[in-house]
Amino acid sequence: MPWPARFDGRLLRLQELRLLLALGIIGLAVALREPRFLGAANLEQVALSATLVCIVAVGEALVIIARQVDLSVGAIVATSAFVSAEWLERNPEGSLVFVLLIGCGVGLAMGAGNALLVALFRIPAIIATLGTLAIYRGGVIVYAGGRQISATVLPDSYGHIADIHILGIPLLVWLATLLTIAVGAAARFTRTGRNLYSLGSNPEGARLAGINEPGHIALVFVLSGLLCGLVGVLWGARFGTVDAVLAPDLNLQAISAVVVGGVSIFGGSGTVYGAAIGAVIFAVLQNGVQLLGINQFWLQAVVGTAILVTVFLYSFFARRTERIQREQRRSRPEPARLAARPDAGI
Amino acid sequence: MSKPVAWLTRWEVFLLIVLIVTLVCGSQASRYFLTTSNLSIALAGMMPVAIVALSMTLIIITGEIDISVGSIIGLCASAMAVCLEQGLPVEVAMLAGVAVGMLAGFINGAIVVFGALPSLVVTIGTLALYRGMAQIALKERGVSNFPEWYQDIGFGTVAGTPIPWSLTIFLPMSALFAIYLHKTHWGRALFAIGNNREAARFSGIGVKRAILGVFVASGIMSSLAAIVLTAYLASARSDTAIGLELPVITAVVLGGVNIFGGAGTLVGVFIALLVLAFVQNALGLAGVTPEEQQIVTGVVLVATLIVFGSSAVLKNARASLGRLRPRG
Fold it and tell me: Are A138 and B291 inside 8 Å of each other by CB?
């Protein structure tokens, strides 16, 4: 057997391991040119910048797996961040738990708005969330009225959320990791999670199998909104300053991370873990461009190239797997009783 | 349903009613609204979006999408700016812009067609790539030493009339696109591809060439929009037209084009563009900020689609009622 087939045989069939390999190669390439990349402080910065996009990408991954898309994530994050920071500004003694609840509540409500339009009114997700993107973003800009809430007027305890370390690793990183694992496990092992994959790969078949389509679609949009609400609160804690125009292209960042993470844009395949690794890959690329002293104007071009290269590779791998499977089927004659059944081809 | 009634329930007729309501409300909101100079300003401001919406209509009818149009405009603007910095005449810069746009559209189409990749993902990638190339070429510089006649393309009107110059680019183009889409077999082929790509291929339609064609058209139209927009803003920068894809897609969808391809008319898109232009203008005259206009645009988009969708909801409700009804 030629080596690529054997090499591809076991572990590398797992898409996430391929992604980790790619991440390792990119990291190694950066580290060889600039050893500072591997410094603890720098790695922590990379991890922190990955976390927020990662949590949004986890929600977006579920949405895309169910063959929908959510373009309004950045606007939801901005609204949640501004509303919760404003409440904290007015009630400096307020409990942080309550701030978290406000932020998540805002996200939940906005996600429910998306869910209503897509699940009940049957508006295609790409258009419905295009509309709510304009409404939410416009809404928060009007509400904020050009105001900026900076760290100086917010209680110190809020900003400290980003400084808390557990076992030497920032709390935000723990949170993102645990959320990714929890959502990933739920998608893999619960009935609802499997239903999302069924709906994504064959909506008609899933409906006929008795899966409640509107309910599941509503669920992914509400979940995505909830996670965005959480990210909004964390955003304020991490960056200190909050305004209405923050995270302008978070929707594209999240979708890029999901796609690079191996989730098919047509739904039904890929994992939440892949999307999370995708978010980390973009954080490493961004950090690498900065560290290597490459002009920051190159960053967008690097990101665009990375997206194109990965989708090329995915389609290449998918076609090769298909070809190999076809050849294997041809070389192994089917058992006679199977071939005789009229529905054997299905 | 008899024929005139069927005609009355068309989406375009509904849009026309919305347009008339907009004009009436606008004239109530401000007495300057229905002046020729104001209508001329409203149209001139919409032209960059309108020009790109023509090719976007074709792309969406084919069942594809092009998210990268804003970035192509930025790249064309950068290419023109670099040409001007080199001391080349503005005519050469415009030609270079069109060439760059055509190439960018061709690259999009080639990756989609020959890579057999989803256009949504590909153009998200080139959205970043083209914007990045524009930034690499122009950095933070802006070029604004355009000759007087060039700026007229964006703001000026045809001598003695209130017709903006940019409209003289848009109108012939929209006639060309409408004839191509609705009166030629190539146009019919786009609908066929959007409805059922496999069937279209088996019936002998050159699917790959058609898709490549609409993406190249999108690139060319984006470069024309880049010329109009740089003239309108009197400056070419690498961040020109960030986020332009949103109003373009909004206009096309509001025009009744099915986002999944296979259905839609350019007349609908045309009316939707007028609606959007006049709604924004009337709101502006009434002292509404651009952000509030953005909300209104979003509400208009979602509300019209709920009207669309509610018919589907009613149909579903009726169907389930039918199931509940005892038989015989």
Answer: yes
For residue A237, which amino acid is it?
A
CA distance A263 to chain B (A): 11
Q: Do B128 and A307 touch (CB under 8 A)?
A: yes
The structure tokens listed for A144 are 């904020």
Q: Any bridge partners for residue B157, and if so which?
A: B164
pLDDT at site B6? 62
Rounded to the nearest angstrom, the minimum Cα separation between A165 and chain B is: 35
Question: Which of chain A's residues have a Cβ under 8 Å away from the Cβ of B131?
Answer: 300, 304
First-residue to last-residue Cα distance in chain A: 31
The C-alpha of A297 sits at a distance from chain B's nearest C-alpha, in angstroms, of 5
At residue B273, the pLDDT reads 93
Q: How confident is the model at residue A13, as a pLDDT?
A: 59
Is ipTM > 0.85 here? Answer: no
- Nearest C-alpha in B relative to A123: B309
Nearest CA in chain B to A71: B246
Q: Give me the residues paired with residue A166 across strands.
A: A169
The pLDDT of residue A250 is 87
The answer to whether A162 and A36 have CB atoms below 8 angstroms apart is no
Our CA angle for B322, B326, B328, nearest 5°, is: 105
Q: Do B81 and B138 meet the contact criterion of CB atoms below 8 Å apart?
A: yes
**CA B199/CA B206 separation, integer angstroms:** 12
* A300: its two tokens: 């967008």
- The shortest CB-CB distance from A259 to any of B121, B126, B299 is to B121
What is the b/e burial string over A66-93, where b = at least 16 CB atoms within 10 angstroms of the residue's CB? bbbbbbbbbbbbbbbbbbbbbebbeeee
Residue B175's pLDDT is what? 94
Place of tokens 């959480």: A230
Q: Please report the pLDDT score of residue A125 as a whole number.
A: 86
Residues of chain B with pLDDT under 70: 1-9, 308-328
Alpha-carbon gap, residue A132 to A137, rounded angstroms: 8
Residue ranges for chain A with pLDDT beneath 50: 1-9, 11, 337-346
pLDDT computed for residue B218 by the predictor: 95
The count of CB pairs under 8 A between chains A and B is 135
B107 touches chain A (CB under 8 A): no
Locate all alpha helices (DSSP H) within chain A, ordered by sequence: 3-7, 15-33, 40-65, 73-90, 96-115, 125-144, 156-160, 171-189, 191-201, 203-208, 213-239, 250-260, 272-291, 299-331, 336-340
